[in-house]
Amino acid sequence: MNDKDLNNKESWEMLSREVHYKNERFSIAKEKFVTPRKTEGLYYVLEANSGIKVVALDGDDIVMIEEYRYPVKKRVLEVPGGGLSNDSPEEAAKRELLEEVGATAKEWRSCGSIDVLPGLIRGTCHFFLAKDLTFSKRILEDTEADSTVVRINKAEIYKMLDNGEIENSISASALLAVRKFID
């Protein structure tokens, strides 16, 4: 067996799949499989709805959100974002920027996507750069009520990334993905 066979997704055979939990945002499935080397394995896969992250540039500042994240029990600095419903990634990005920041943008650029924690999660996050912002009122969900909008100079943001001060991995990925379009 060569390396090409090991990388061929069709050479991984699913033997069974059982959904253990499902809600409107994600599901958890138990999947039994056979690897290319003919060994059996078991994965619990979290299947998450696709999401978006928006790097909103206001002059030389990047508009961030700081909010309490219950799973990690602390306030986290991150770029605005959320999940897709029945909309396109760009429509979701526009909706989330308006809801979380209270802003619209005249200029939008798609800046790629990532697989979120591919060893555990089946889900994609799309990145967007928003420029030429106009601000209005925020439209927050209950879980976002204590969030604050924070403006940080882009040079300072990249220092924070270098120093590990931005702990939200998807926000850090988004900031790095758009860097070539804002420098």
Main sheet characteristics: 7 strands, mixed
Give the averaged pLDDT, no decimals: 92
Distance between the termini: 46 Å
- Count up the helices: 4
Provide the CATH architecture of the largest domain: Alpha-Beta Complex
Q: What is Rg?
A: 19 Å
Query: Remind me, CATH topology of the largest domain?
Result: Nucleoside Triphosphate Pyrophosphohydrolase
Description of the structure:
The strands form two sheets. Strands 4, 5, 6, 7, 8, 10 and 11 form a seven-stranded mixed β-sheet that branches. A four-stranded mixed β-sheet has the order 1-2-3-9, with no helix packed on it. The protein folds into two domains: 3-48, no CATH class; 51-182, Nucleoside Triphosphate Pyrophosphohydrolase (Alpha-Beta Complex). With 183 residues, the chain is α+β, with helices and mostly antiparallel strands. It has four helices and eleven strands, in the order H-E-E-E-E-E-E-E-H-E-E-E-E-H-H. 21% of the residues are buried. The chain is 22% helix and 47% strand.
